Amino acid sequence: MNPMIKPRVVIAILVTAAIALGVQLAGPNISAFVTAILAGIATLLILTVGHKATYSIATSRPSPEAIVEAETRLVEAIGEPVLVATDGRVRLANAAARTLLGAHIVDEDMRLAIRHPAAAERLAPGAPDGAVELIGLGGRDQRVQMRVATIAPTQRVIHLVDQTTSYAAERARVDFVANASHELRTPLAAILGFIETLDDDKAGSDPEVRGRFLGVMFKEARRMQRLIDDLISLSRIEAEKYQLPETAVALGSVIEEVAGELRDDDGGRRADLVLNIDRGVPLVSADRAQISQVVHNLVSNAYKYGRHGAPVTIRLAQEGNLLRLSVSDEGDGIAPEHLPRLTERFYRVDSGRSRSIGGTGLGLAIVKHIVERHRGRLEIVSKRGVGTTVSMLLPISAPVTKTS
Predict the structure, then answer these.
(1) Please, are residues 290 and 241 in contact by the beta-carbon 8 Å criterion?
(2) What is the enclosing helix (H) or strand (E) of 264?
(3) Model confidence pTM above 0.70
(4) Does residue 34 surpass a pLDDT of 60?
(5) Strands 322-328, 284-285: pairing kind
(6) How far apart are CA 404 and CA 401, in angstroms?
(7) Are 96 and 102 in contact (CB under 8 A)?
(8) Percentage of the chain surpassing pLDDT 70?
(9) What is the sign, positive or negative, of the torsion defined by CA atoms of 332, 337, 339, 342?
(10) What DSSP string describes 301-350?
(11) DSSP state of 128
C-alpha cells in the first residue's frame, strides 16, 4: 500500500464502493447511487474529523497547574465566601472566605477552619450534603447559611451565605405587624367595652356617664385614625423611596407655612414657637408635602416632650453644600442608650407617656424615610435636663426649571 494513502481514506473509499455496488445490484436507481456516494464522503469526513479531534484533545490537555489556576480564578470571582476541600482539608478559599474566617484556613481541616458546632457535624466524613444555619459565625448577631456539596468522592464545596440582613428585615416585618396589631387592638378594645356599657339601660340612661364614655370613645377612635393615617403615609413614602424628588423647594417658605398652621391649631403654645431662618439660602430638590410633614412631626414631638412654656426653635441654615433644618426643644432630654432606636417603628422611650399625649410611635420613622428618599441625613442630639435637637440635612439642588 502506498504509505501516502491513510488507512482511514482506504476504508472510506471501500465503504463508498460497497454501498454503490449494492445499490446498483438492487436496481438502476440514480438517486440511490448519489446517496451512496454522499454517504461515503460523510464517512470519510467523520473519520478525518474524528481523528483530528482526538489528536487535538490528546495534545491540548491542560496541565495540573493550569487547572488549579483556573479553579482559583473561578472561586475568587464569587463575591460570597466559598471554600473547596479535598480529603477534609481546605484546598482553596476565596478572598471573602479568608476575610470572614482568616487567612490561615488554607490547608487546614475544614472543621477547624469553620469553628462552629453545627458546621462540624455537617463537615464530618460521610455527612450528607445540605445546608445548615450557623448563628454567631463572624459576629455575635451574624447569621450565616452554610451549604455543602460533594463534587467528587474526595472533594467538597462549602458556600457561606450571610443572611443577617434578610433575617433582620424579616424580624422587623414580623415585629411591625405585631406592634401595629397591638396598637390598633388597644383603642378598639376600649371602644367596644364602652359600647357594651352604654348598651346597658341603667348606665346608658345617665347623661353624665354617657357623656364621659362617649368622650373616651371619641379620643380612642381619633387615636386609631392617626395611627392608620401614619401607617398609610409610611407605606406611601416607602413605595416612593427610590424616586428622587425633582422639584426645587424653598425650605424657608415651607417652615413659615407650617409655623402658621401650628400657631393656629395650638393656641396654647403659639408663643413658644421661634423661627430662626437664614434668608437667601439656596433651594433644595424636594417633595414639598413631605418636607412639610417632617416639620409638622418634629415640632409636634417638641411640643409633646418639651417643657410647657419653653421655646421650640426651628432653624434653617446653610452648611457647605447642605441645608440644615433643625427643631430644638427644652425638655427632659433622652438618655443616650435610646438615641439609636428612636427611628424604629413603634419604639417609645416612655410608652405610657407617649400614648397619653397621643403619640403613635411612627413619627420619627416617617421622618427618617422621608430624609432617606431625599438622599439626606438625620441627626438627633439630646442632653438630659437640657433638651433635644433633631436635624435634617439636605443636599442643595442643581438649578431646575420646576419650583415650588
Answers:
(1) no
(2) helix 251-265
(3) no
(4) no
(5) unpaired
(6) 10
(7) no
(8) 78
(9) negative
(10) HHHHHBPTTS-EEEEEEEETTEEEEEEE--BS---GGGGGGTTSTT--SS
(11) P
Q: What is the mean pLDDT of residues 25-48?
A: 49
Residue 78, helix vs strand vs coil: coil
Is 346 in contact with 381 (CB distance < 8 Å)?
no
Cell 439642588 belongs to which residue? 397
Q: Helix crossing, 363-373 with 207-239: angle to 10°? A: 20
- Hey, is 127 helix, strand or coil? coil
* Positive or negative: CA dihedral 245, 247, 253, 258: negative
For 192-243, how does the pLDDT look when each residue is reduced to its tens digit (9 = 90+)? 888 888 877 776 677 888 888 888 888 888 888 888 888 888 888 888 888 8
Task: Please calculate the CA angle 151-154-160 and round it to the nearest 5 degrees.
Answer: 55
Q: 249: burial class by Cβ within 10 Å (0-12, 13-18, 19+)?
A: buried
**What's residue 360's pLDDT?**
76
The number of beta carbons lying within 10 Å of the beta carbon of residue 52 is 10
Q: For residue 381, give the nearest of 328, 312, 306 by alpha carbon.
A: 328
Q: Which of 244-253, 316-325, 393-402 has the lowest mean pLDDT?
A: 393-402
| 343 within 8 A of 334, measured Cβ to Cβ | no
Answer yes or no: are the C-beta atoms of 365 and 234 closer than 8 Å. yes
Angle at 354 between CA 349 and CA 359, to 5 degrees: 120
Kindly give the pairing relationship between strand 155-162 and strand 248-249.
unpaired
**Residue 387: strand, helix, or coil:** strand
Query: For residue 126, what is its C-alpha cell?
Result: 460521610
Tell me the pLDDT tens digit for each residue of 98-157: 998 998 999 999 889 998 888 888 898 888 999 999 888 877 778 899 999 998 888 999
Q: How far, CA to CA in Å, does 359 sit from each of 183, 214, 227, 345, 383?
A: 11, 21, 9, 12, 22
The candidate with the shortest Cα–Cα distance to 195, out of 220, 168, 161, is 220
Rounded to whole angstroms, how far apart are CA atoms 360 and 354? 8
Strands 312-319 and 273-277: parallel
Say if residue 209 is exposed, middle or buried (CB neighbours under 10 Å; 0-12, 13-18, 19+). middle
Quote the longest CA-to-CA distance of the chain: 127
